[in-house]
Amino acid sequence: MTELAPYASHPARSRGRRHPEPAAPTRDDFQRDRDRIVHSTAFRRLVYKTQVFLNHEGDLFRTRLTHSLEVAQLARSIARALKLNEDLVEAIALAHDLGHTPFGHAGQDALDECMREHGGFEHNLQSLRVVDTLEHRYPQYDGLNLSFETREGILKHCSRTNAEQIEAAEPNGVAHRFLDRTQPSLEAQLCNLADEIAYNAHDIDDGVRSGLIGIEQLADVELFERYRREALAEHPGLTGRRVLYETIRRMLSAQVYDVIDATRAAIAAAAPVDADAARQAGPLVLFGDAMRTQSAALKRFLFRGLYRHPQVVQTTVQARAVVQELFAAYIDKPSDMPESFAVRGDGPRAVADYIAGMTDRFAMREHERLTGRTWAA
To answer: Is residue 225 part of a domain?
Structure first.
């Protein structure tokens, strides 16, 4: 591994695990975290969970699993250049979507509505619940017993109410920064930005592949059009999907190099002496001003042209209905859930945990089993 910078997260200085464990002979704490995540049940489920297009709509569209792998690849590349901890970055990237519901953001929003009177539903908080409580793999404890630094990175967003509840149970723990307005580690900041870079790029690819958006519609999106023109100038005979692939490749590279340059400048200005000093310095992993503006314009385009496309909206309406009707059915008859959820005694939260863990296709099958209705084509 590349020699770490002083402000990187060093495994030997980790704040440790909630349940102390002896050190492993060949792996540090962050490497063990990554391995536990990869072997978890929740990680395997990501292959059948929606990114934008539902799992049954096509074999080549991104899923939560392929998205997580792309985030990990981008984040590790940037971490290496900045001398941050690549293993921690990879662990956070691979775990950041473990709590996502079936059917993407539509499922999340529907479950949040169902849980409105019971504490709500946040997918970042659910990812933390997965690694802290819901995975049952070890005899000594629930969850995966990950290190503080990995758990801190997983909890990307958190409402103040939930942060206060976590803080009460875990003083000065992973939610404390949402109360004192400090930052997570530089590795966690990097994963947040790599997440944005990855989904902007692959949503263009999936949107064009689906036929819902065309390359010509992206002509007014500076971040895309600049690199399309550049690709065609260098390869005048380029046609078909190769134009799209080469444009996205150049766009990704430009964003990666921009983050590296802007972050190096921000770190040099703040001069943090260690990882804790970096947490106090404000956001340090970032785009330069011009790239931030261009990335925001791309996100606006995708929101209008893809996420709000009538065909996508139609499927999200159906997805919301499936989640809401599953929730109502399990509340009415908890015995329709596996016994481990039915007997928990925390009613709505047990139902939310069960539904959030479903894949798209399992949720569809369960809905058909309980209602007798099939998903409308």
So the answer is: no
> In this structure, which amino acid lies at residue 343?
V
Split into its structural domains, the chain has a count of 1
**Position 79 in a domain:** yes
Inter-CA distances, 295 with 199, 224, 259, Å? 11, 10, 12
DSSP 70-122: HHHHHHHHHHHHHT--HHHHHHHHHHTTTTPPTTHHHHHHHHHHHTGGGT---
φ/ψ region of 245 (left if φ > 0, alpha if ψ in -120 to 50, else beta) reads alpha
Query: Which residues 6+ apart lie within 8 Å of 74 measured at CB?
Result: 194, 197, 198, 252, 256
Q: Which residues of 156-192 are buried (b: 16+ CB within 10 A; e: fewer)?
A: bebeeebbeebbeeeeebbbebbeeeebbbbbbbbbb
Mean pLDDT of the chain: 93
Q: Which of 44-58, 144-158, 319-333, 349-363 has the lowest mean pLDDT?
A: 44-58
Give residue 120's domain range. Answer: 26-201+252-371
**Which positions ≥6 away from 173 have C-beta within 8 Å?**
148, 166, 167
Interatomic CA distance for residues 157 and 185, integer angstroms: 14
- In this structure, what CATH number is given to the domain that contains residue 131? 1.10.3210.10
pLDDT digits (tens, 9 = 90+) for 238-283: 998 999 999 999 999 999 999 999 999 999 999 999 999 999 999 9
Does 114 reside within a domain? yes
Residues 196-238: pLDDT tens digits?
A: 999 999 889 888 988 888 899 999 999 999 999 999 999 999 9
Query: Is 273 a member of any domain?
Result: yes
Beta bridge partners of residue 50, listed in sequence order: 63
Rg (CA), the chain: 21
User: Structure tokens of 252?
Assistant: 């990704």
